[in-house]
Each structure stands twice: as structure tokens, then as C-alpha cells.
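Dear support,

Our group has been running a series of protein-ligand predictions, and this particular one with NAP is the one our PI (initials K.S.) wants archived with full inputs and outputs. We had some confusion internally about which version of the output was final, so please treat the block below as the authoritative record. The input we submitted was:
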Amino acid sequence: MGRLVGKVAIVTGAARGIGAGIVERLVEEGAAVVLGDARADLGAATAARLGAVFCACDVAREADVAGIVALTVERFGQLDAFVQNAGIFPMHDVEDIPVEEWDRVLAVNLRGCFLAAKHALPIMKRQRGGRLVFTSSITGPRVVPPQHAHYAASKAGINGLIRAVALEAAPFGITVNGVEPGNIMTEGVQTERSPEYIAAMQASIPMGRLGSVRDVANAVLFLVSDEAGYVTGTTIVVDGGQILPESRA
Ligand code: NAP
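Confirmed final output from the archive:
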């Protein structure tokens, strides 16, 4: 307890799921947290429950991302960590993906991380320190199930973005990293994926269970903490060993 006392963090896509788990973990460790989500009703309720401040924010919109950074600095006078976690994961065969859906997945998942970096870095450079953490995925950077072309492209793009921004930010004492969750049991997965899909994933995880939001939140906590000060430009896989098997036998 208390590893983040005096720190101020933004966590986006946090009305529920992994993001809410990250908020809970950072608050437990003493951080002041601004919770951003496109869903005002649920976002405000989750923030109130977890002891965070709510700010409506669609991470695909530059004005919203600029707004959450401005609100945070106005309210707390500093910004130590921006965790851009918002992501959407519709499924279609590649030839059936409407162009609008392709653009929206890239806008939320990838542009959202770019906008977080663009608007947090000026503050963090002035402070001579800070942490950017993006929620990537094993899907795209390492493995892929069918019907995930846009999602996989967006998450692989996040890993490239992490390296590029980490290089530019390093001289200012700012680190840029990501987490790559495997299959994590969240509200989004329960509504967007069939029971058969979830069962197939569970069967392919050496640890025999889907991950919890806390499993991911603990990795984010490390990346945000002082202990991770020399870790930059990389990702932590949190997948119960799912990407390990060389064969199904
Ligand atoms: P979730 O349960 O659907 O929660 C995501 C939250 O983000 C929801 O409140 C959602 O609102 C919100 N959101 C969606 N679009 C947004 C936007 N444009 N701006 C701000 N907020 C937005 O999802 P999750 O399973 O926790 O996933 C969180 C992140 O982890 C995503 O980046 C996802 O790709 C990544 N991830 C998840 C898994 C997994 O197995 N769960 C695995 C690998 C990576 P709505 O309800 O309105 O959409």
C-alpha cells in the first residue's frame, strides 16, 4: 500500500473491465486518479465507487483527450501517468469489415494512444518525468484468432507507437510501455464474445483460466511505479502462458 502516494494518474476506458480494475489498483496505492470513459453514466458511477474523479472522454476525439489532461492538471497541478486503456473489439472476416468499423477500431485503439501521448507529453516534459502506459494485446503483436484483422492491426500498431514515443520521451525521464493482456474476463468479453469462444480460449491457456482485471492492473501498477523507472519501450504479456504452446498436442 502507498506506492503511488502523491502521484496523479489518468486511466481511460475505465467505466468497467480492465480499466476499472486499473483505477481500483492505483487508488489502493494512494494515487489521485481521473477516470475517463465515453459512457458518462457508468463512468461517473464507477469513479464514485472507486474514489476517482470522472471526466467524459472519447479517446478518439482530440478535444476530449486534451480536455481530460487539462482537467487533471487544473485539479491536481500535475500529471504523473496516463494509462490509455480504451479499446473496442468487434469481429468480422476481413472482407466483411465495413470501412467505417475499420476506421473506428483504429481511431479508438490506436489514435487514442497517439492522442494520449500528444497531450500528456508537454506536461510530463515540463515536469521532467512521467509514465505512459497503453493497453495493447497478445492479439496482433503475437497471435491472432479469426475475424480480428482491424483489432490486430491496431494493437500491433500500439507496440510500434510505444517504441517510437519511448525513444523521444527517454531524455526527459518519461517512460512509455504497454501491457499485452491475453484473455481477460470482463464485461466487454462477456457481451462481445460467445460462450463457445470463451471456452475455447480457456482450453488454450496453460494456467487453465481466463485472467482477471487485477492480473492486468498489477502489471500496470508496476509500469507506473518508481520501481519501473528504467523500463521503457516495451510490453508485459499477462496471459497465463497462452502464447507459449508450440503445439496443441
Ligand atoms: P470493456 O469491458 O468493453 O471496457 C472498456 C471500456 O472502455 C468500456 O466502458 C467502453 O465503453 C469504454 N470505451 C469504448 N470506447 C471508448 C472510447 N472511444 N473512449 C473512451 N472509452 C471507451 O473492455 P475490456 O475487456 O476491459 O478491454 C479493455 C482494454 O483491454 C481494451 O483496449 C482491449 O482491447 C484490451 N484487451 C482486453 C482483453 C480481454 O480479454 N478483455 C484482452 C486483450 C486486450 P462502451 O461500453 O461504451 O464500449
